[in-house]
Each structure stands twice: as C-alpha cells, then as structure tokens.
Amino acid sequence: MKKVTLILAGLCLAMWSFGQVVKLGTAAPVKDETVSVFSPGNDIKGGGDVFWSCSFNWGNVETGEWELPTGWDRRDNNDLGNLWTWRSPYDTLGGCCTHQGPSTNFTTPLDGYIVVPSDEYSNRDGQTTATAMDCYITTPPIDCSSKSSVVVKFKQLFRLCCGTNTLKMYVTNDGGVHWAEYDCLFGLSNNRVTDARYQNVEFNISDVAAGLPNVQVKFYQAGNTHYFWMIDDLSLSEAYQNDLVLEDYWLAFNGGFDDRIDHINYWPLSQMGMAAETGGNIGDYLFTGAFLNNGMADQEDARLQMTALKNGVQVWQEVSNPVTIWSLERDTMTSNSVFLATDYGDYQFQYLGISDNIEEYAVNNSMNKSFTVNDTLFHRADFTAEASSNTGGWVGGANAGDMVGVGYDIYKACEVNSMTAQIAGVSTSEAPQFQYVLFKYVSEETPPYVEWIASDVIDATAEMRWTWQTFDMQKDGETEFLEPGFYVACVRMWGTTASDPTNGSNGISIGWDMDNRASGYTYMYQAVGGNWYQSGKVNQIGININENAGPRTADVVFNVDLNAHITNGEFHPGTDNVDVVGFTSVWMGPAAMTDADGDGIYSVTVAGFPIGQNIEYKYRVNSVEEAFPTTGNLHRNYIVRYWNILNNRFNNGVTTGIGNRELTDSFNVYPNPTSGSFTVSFSSVVPVNAGISLLNMQGQVVYYHTVANVTSHTETINEPLAKGVYFLRLNNGNEVTVRKVVVN
Questions:
Q1: Domain with 587 in it
Q2: Rounded to the nearest 5°, which phi and psi values hold at 428?
Q3: Residues 260 and 283 placed together within one structural domain of the fold
Q4: Element (H, E) at 226
Q5: Is residue 30 part of a domain?
Q6: By C-alpha distance, which of 183, 168, 295, 185 is closest to 239?
Q7: Is 575 exposed, middle or buried (0-12, 13-18, 19+ CB in 10 A)?
Q8: Per DSSP, what are the bridge partners of residue 170?
Q9: Taking 70 as the threshold, does the pLDDT of residue 629 lie above it?
Q10: Is there a contact between 521 and 405 (Cβ–Cβ < 8 Å)?
Q11: CATH number at residue 465
C-alpha cells in the first residue's frame, strides 16, 4: 500500500504551494537537550602490532593550553580560522546546539583529542553564521618501509548539519602529489549521531603505504555548518592475515503492504504471521551482511552465520551461501531463509562472519540486534533517545499545533487503547500542553491523512522531562476499532510565547532514536500552512492495542561491577555492603546483592516486574547512593522486557584514584610450564568479545576460540602439542595481551 508520493524537495516558504503532500523537510540544527557525560574507558590500543600511534596528548588538560606538534599540518581552506583543534577532556563543545564532551568510546580521552567544533565556529561572539567547514589536518611522514601491510585505526564521533557533508581520510606516499581516499561518513545523514559500528574505524591501506618510507594521513571535513567531528586514538599497525570485517548489516522486516521495512523494535504477535501482499509472511526477517576482507589472505568460503536467540536460548541458525572475498575486497551475503518469531519473547539476532580461514581478529566480524514480540505495543524505535526533537528544527516549524509522528501498518483489525511517548524537553515558561493523536491514511489526494482518534489534552510539567507518558485514547465505541491500513501516531504540541502570540510555540520535545534507520516512516505536520512532511527522525512514539495474551511480569537480574572501586580501596569485600534500590511505584526496593564467585561483580534477581513499565534504580554502598548518572535523570532507567539482565558498573566505573584494571592484569595461564593441558582465565570490567589464539614459534595458529559478551571467562586448552615454546594471545578489540607458554 503506497502511502504518499514523496516530493524530494526542501521545505521553505517558496515551496508551500505544493499543498498537503509529504515532502522532505529542510534540516536546521536541532538543539540537543541531552547532556553527554564523559566516562573514561579502561582499554588502551587497538589490535595488531602497532608501530605508530598518537593519543593526541598535545596540551594541558587543566588549562586547555596546547601546541601543534612538529610535522603536523592543519589548514582552513576558507581562511576563517575554522581549524581542527585540540580539546581538553574537561571542556564541553558549545555553540547553539551542542553540549558534548569527548566520546565515551575513546580509549585515551583523559589526555585530549582533536575536533572540528563546527557549532562553535558558527556561533562566535553572539553572531550566528552558516559557513560550511572546509579544513584538514595532516600527520607528519610515517616510515612504513619495513612493513608488508599497514592498517590505520582511529576512533571517531560526529554529528553533522546542514548541507552535503564530506568526511574523508586521505593517504599519500609522495608528499601530497597523489592521495588515496577513504570515506569516514559511511552514508550517515544529517543530524545522525555516529552509529556504534562506525565509531571504531579501520582502513587497510597496505596498497598505498606498505614498504614506503613517507606515508602521511590527512583528515578532511567539508560541507557541514553545525555540530562536530572528533577523533582520538590514531594508530598504524600491521594487518592480520585473516580479518573479516562486518561493515554493515540489514534486518529486513516483512512489511506486508510494502517492501521490507528495515528493523522494528517492538511488534504485537497478533500482527504477525499472515500472508504478505509482497510474498512471505508479515513479520518474517531476512538478514544481510556487508563484509570487508581487511586481512592480507583471501577469505575462502566466507559466510554469514545468523543466529536467533529467544530469551537467551538459541531457536534458529542459518549459514548463507559461501563466497570467496579477495584481500581488501568487499562482498554482501544474505540469509537463504527467513526467520519468523512465533511466540512472545525478547529475540536477539547475532551476525557473524566466518570462513575456512582461522579468524585472527574476532571483534569486528559480529554484531547483535534485538527485537521484542509482545502483545500490545507497536514501537519502531528502541527505548534509548540520543536526543530530542520537535518541529523547531525545521524551517517554518516551532508553532503551536505542530506535530511529530511515526507511521505504523495495521495488518489485522484491532482495538487501540492508548499511545505512549517519551516527553524529553518541557519549556514550562510556555505553559506547554500536548495531545496524542492517531491519524489514518486515506489517499494520495489532499489531505492524505484524517484525524481518527485522540487522547485528552495534557498539561506538560517539569517532572515529565525524560519520562515515558502513556495516555488512553478517547473511545466512542467506533473509532477505537482500527481496520487494516496505515496510521500515523502523532504528538500534537502547544505552547505560548510573548514573542509570537499569534502562532505560539511547541512547548515540548519528544525523544529521538537517532541510530534508527527506518526514516521513511517518520512525519511532521506544521500547523501554519497545514502541510505534512517527512522528517527522517524516528521519534519515541508508540501505539498500544487491546491484547493481553502475553506474559505480564518478568524477573530482572541486576549485576554491578565494583572491581574499579575494589582496586582503588573504595570498596572492601566482606565488610562493605551493596544493594540496588528502586524509586518508582513500580518498584521501591531495596534488594541486597552478593558476589558468590568472588569476581567483584555483585548480583541479585528481583522477580515480578510488570513488563513494559519503566523502572528507576540506583546502586548503593553502605546505604550511600552512587553518583551516576549525573545527567537529566536522577536515576538509572530501564524498560522491563521479557528477558532482563542489567550489567552496570558502579558510578559507571569512575573512581577517585587508580583507574580500572586493564586486561593485562587479569590474564592468567596455569600451570605454566605444562605437560600439554593448561587453563586460561581473564576478566573485564565491561562485557567484551574476545579471541583466544595459541601460536607456535613459526607464527602458525594451532588453537583458536572466541567468546562473546563476557565479563569473565575460564577455559582449559588440551591440544596434542609438541614440546617447545608457544605464545598465547588474548585480543578483546581494545588491547592485545600475550603470554609465553612452555610445553615440557
């Protein structure tokens, strides 16, 4: 069922003559009402044998004073002073729309990082401009003459607006006469925070760098006018022989009326399983992975292995047809069959790239995505809002009566009970009000949608900030019964303002799932002009239908890691007590926690939480609450699912003394020397994926095993090993640790 013909044009006053059809809006920078809190990590370097690195420790983090090191070059091609610059981790990027410290993913944020703070450059001395960035920074020459392979690795975080953006890495080996080009944007659109899979970047540059003495790397940004691009932890290392990288992935949900519609986070079981107009069954998933052979050896019989878990238990697995991917080449693999969930539960889809070769760097060839089959809730977004939005981020928006919405296909007749949304920002000075409204698509003529059913009008209060609010719809005995078709779940917003008493303001903003790619199902309505537009912003808005067949309650397992505080002498096992306490009517707590296995991770299972409800909680030591989080919410928040295991670090791992333990300190091998059988153990303060490999003196891998999402692991290796010296290597993606093993 085709909803509305899209007119791919900018939203501006001159184009309102197009009438009430869905068009693409013209983006403006959206003020981010979240506060990103810097949390130092405990890892140090990326995998492989690093022969050159830069952590950007260029200045005084206390005073912010710094100098560009000798050999580095930076330039603004516009000659406006919009340069790459060094920043202290204790600074916060500013401007009209940015409140951002260093990425929590950076390995070495405490000594600084480099950034193009576009938002600051566009807002100097109270003056707002919209000059597109056009600047670069270049390393000194790096000697790669003794290296047979070269991989560039760095960590990045960006958010861009509002033009055609360019983020590139360039490599030269002849002083800048010729440059090889590598894209760092990965196709992400305006206003998108960097997806997790693009924050750790690797480029195999062996074809332009290996064996050459004067290699330089340049980072170039152009086009955007707002937000930032930051980089840290830059290194050059030798490549692995076998390194299969999952660069991208697609979860294609069978939409029934249309083509497959990307990923869904929550969907009712009653709306799945029927025959789809486009073939297959509504709700079945088809999986695709895009892979890069980042190693030096061809990957023979490379396959995509897909696994589906239901509440932590495997229920399906399939391997795609094999292909051979040559070194530095790419290929895409798709599952041969689809997966259709047939029961309520929390499902996890695990992507894994495999081949006949033994993978040496097993942390970049896999990823997981979640999907919940429930009885009542339609919800495209996840429950984590990276920012918030209303129509104020669009030309002609920010007026009373504007709406933001998310589209949903109803396949089977049902009764709507309520709608839910995350109310993010509330401007109490504007006397804000809002209303949930469900619109139904009727035709491609104007207007394309008609108002079908609505909630009462609600007064927004400061206490609603960053909370989920669910309100019943006004039933009349007819409109609550929805026939199959396409509906848009909207939040209508009103506010008053002295500066514009005629049009008013929005008054509130709605949580925005910025890493969701289902942008074709997101809408906004502007009251001034009466037009619908496509926004590309997946807001946190869902529909609840009248079904009650699924489980109503579930257990929640709380795990809190206190190793950093134990190491720092701030927590004393056996003497101090830790518990978790709730702060809402759903659960008030407390619940005492114990560490039965002595690994520094304290646990407790609390039964009977209502599924779909938000719980607020904190951990306490000797009845003193942790200081985390320090942002908008006073407490940790979690939406209860069917399967719930919460792995947290006390205070998010931040201590006042010694930092978190490194992998090196926890990696043990015993007995050593050995007659052939020995045990390997390690722990981590955060869940990690890790590869364990045993190499002989010739560098051949004689044993390999991977583990996923673990904070501690122990295994026994019992292989028919000849006498001699071996090297046991543990790689968690952030650090490589090697132990010598002697076999007698």
A1: 553-653
A2: -65, -25
A3: yes
A4: strand 226-237
A5: no
A6: 295
A7: exposed
A8: 181, 218
A9: no
A10: no
A11: 2.60.120
Has residue 105 been placed in a domain?
yes
Whether residues 289 and 263 share a domain: the answer is yes
| 528 plus 569 within the same structural domain | no
Residue in the structure block whose two tokens are 């002498």: 569
411 CB-side CA count, 13 A: 20
Task: State phi, psi for 121 to the nearest 5 degrees.
Answer: -65, -30
d(CA 388, CA 509): 6
Contact predicate 617/583, CB 8 Å: yes
**DSSP line for 30-98:** PP--S-PPP---S----SS-EEEEE----B-TTT--B-PPTT-EEEETT-SS---EEE-TT--B-SSS-
What is the sign, positive or negative, of the torsion defined by CA atoms of 244, 246, 247, 252? positive
List pLDDT tens digits, range 12-51: 322 222 223 444 444 445 444 333 333 333 332 334 689 9
pLDDT at 660 over 70: no
Total length of the chain? 744
Phi-psi region of 14 (alpha: psi -120 to 50; beta: other; left: phi over 0): alpha
b/e map 661-699, b = 16+ CB within 10 Å: bbbeebbebeeeebeeebebebbbbbebbbbbbbbbeee
Residue 35 belongs to a domain: no
What global pTM score does this model have?
0.73
Question: Residue 459's closest CA among 439, 438, 430?
Answer: 430
Please state, in angstroms and rounded to a whole number, the distance separating the CA atoms of residues 435 and 654: 41
CATH of the domain at 268: 2.60.40.10
Tokens 């401009």 sit on residue: 129
> How many angstroms separate the CA atoms of 590 and 588, rounded?
6
**Is the dihedral angle over the CA atoms 386, 387, 391, 395 positive or is it negative?**
negative
CA distance 537 to 192: 9
Q: Give residue-wise pLDDT tens across range 216-245.
A: 999 999 998 889 999 999 999 998 889 999
The residue from 347, 378, 409 where one domain ends is: 378
Tens of pLDDT along 70-79?
A: 999 999 999 9
Is it the case that residue 415 has pLDDT exceeding 90? yes
Answer with the one of 204, 237, 270 that is the final residue of a domain: 237
Enumerate residues 6+ apart whose C-beta is below 8 A from 48: 151, 153, 237, 238, 239, 240, 361, 736
Strands (E), 254-341: 266-268, 285-293, 299-310, 313-319, 323-325, 330-334
Q: Do 222 and 80 belong to one domain?
A: yes
Same domain, 208 and 309: no
